[in-house]
Amino acid sequence: MTRSNTLQLLLVEDNLELAETTVEHFELEGIYCDHAANGVAALELIAKTHQDVVILDLNLPRMSGLEVCKRLREQGNDVPVIMLTARDALEDKILGFETGADDYLTKPFAFEELLMRVKVLSRRRSGEVNVIQLKDLKMNVKERSVTRGADDIKLSPTGYRILETLLRATPNPVSREDLIQKVWGDEQPDTNSLKVHMFKLRRALDDNHEEKLLQTVKNFGFVLK
């Protein structure tokens, strides 16, 4: 099975027996499904790999499903999220949707229903624009790749999120405060962290090019133009 030709899912579930069974069912359908057993591991995996849909258990060790979903949305990641829970309370569903979940499924569930919901959300997302472009700078959101002209640009997960935030805002500038909120969420970075990341991003984007795309807006933030 080649990952490029199939849906790529992430199941975040601490019940290992349920996770193993669900992953096996998806593989029988020709769908690649990765697995994380806690919320922290899920965020790390999402930052490194493309996911078409995230299936997220509500009650997770180290970080709840609600917190994971909240941080994804704060970072500007709009990957479709299906929330799983053993509770069918309306309040839980409302909280999940307010946090940014796209769908909700109560345990125990039939795999066929989960499969149907995954396919619906993935089709909905496939209609979205996968490539963001500014002049000769291109970002492929699906492949998580960046090029400028003929050059492949290698970025850290944080650098990628910063660039995506700036590209989506173009031609408008993004304030330092908004950039920190979208990239780091509630976890405030060290004083010099943004400065270091912007230095690395500017070097990656502009060092080998006469036209400089990444510009500082004095006393405000940054803009790509």
Automatic annotation (TrEMBL):
Q: Which GO terms describe its cellular component?
A: cytosol; protein-DNA complex
The record's keywords, sorted A to Z, are: DNA-binding, Phosphoprotein, Transcription, Transcription regulation, Two-component regulatory system
| SUPFAM superfamilies attached to this UniProt entry | C-terminal effector domain of the bipartite response regulators, CheY-like
The Gene Ontology biological process terms listed for this entry are:
regulation of DNA-templated transcription
* Gene Ontology molecular functions: phosphorelay response regulator activity; transcription cis-regulatory region binding
List, alphabetically, the SMART domains matched: REC, Trans_reg_C
Query: What residues are annotated to bind DNA?
Result: 129-225
The segment(s) forming the OmpR/PhoB-type domain are: 129-225
- Chain coiled-coil ranges: none
- Pfam families given in the database record: Response_reg, Trans_reg_C
Source species, domain of life: Bacteria
- The Response regulatory domain extends over 8-122
Q: List residues, modification 4-aspartylphosphate.
A: D57
**Cross-referenced InterPro entries:** CheY-like_superfamily, OmpR/PhoB-type_DNA-bd, Sig_transdc_resp-reg_C-effctor, Sig_transdc_resp-reg_receiver, WalR-like, WH-like_DNA-bd_sf
Kindly indicate whether the keyword Transcription regulation belongs to this entry: yes
Q: What is this protein called?
A: Response regulator MprA
